[in-house]
Write a structure and sequence with these properties.
Layout lengths: L3 H7 L2 E14 L5 E16 L15 E7 L9 E4 L2 E5 L4 E4 L6 E10 L2
Antiparallel strand pairs: 1-2, 1-4, 2-3, 3-7, 4-5, 5-7, 6-7
Length: 115
């Protein structure tokens, strides 16, 4: 069963989650001013298992699966920095819900290394 204790056992890697969102303020050209929030989170990361085809192209994949605790608020525009490696989210994160209570206990997301 998915529980917060399960994620506490596995999320041992320290990372920095940076999210950029359009703010409510406007600049002199009437464009929204971006707001950047940064928080330190504990994550669990492993390579994504998937089928790859090599027909007619060179395949190099850096996709990883990351698990975050419920207190994190990842967005599709977020970046995750682990050590010196920077990862971008490949789509929105999926909530992990506890089946009996329906409460969110964590997040699962696909990430791709960008630098």
């Amino acid at each position: 069963m998915i529980t917060a204790a399960f994620l506490d056992r596995w999320c041992k890697t320290r990372a920095t989650l940076t999210t950029v969102t359009a703010g409510t303020e406007r600049d002199e050209m009437n464009r929204p001013v971006d707001t950047e929030t940064t928080e330190t989170v504990m994550v669990c990361v492993h390579p994504e298992q998937g089928a790859e085809t090599t027909t007619g192209r060179q395949v190099a994949t850096g996709r990883q699966v990351v698990y975050l605790k419920a207190c994190a608020e990842p967005a599709a525009t977020s970046t995750l920095t682990i050590g010196s490696a920077v990862f971008q989210f490949d789509g929105p994160a999926m909530e992990w819900l506890q089946p009996r209570t329906g409460r969110r206990v964590g997040w699962e997301a696909r990430i791709v290394r960008s630098s």
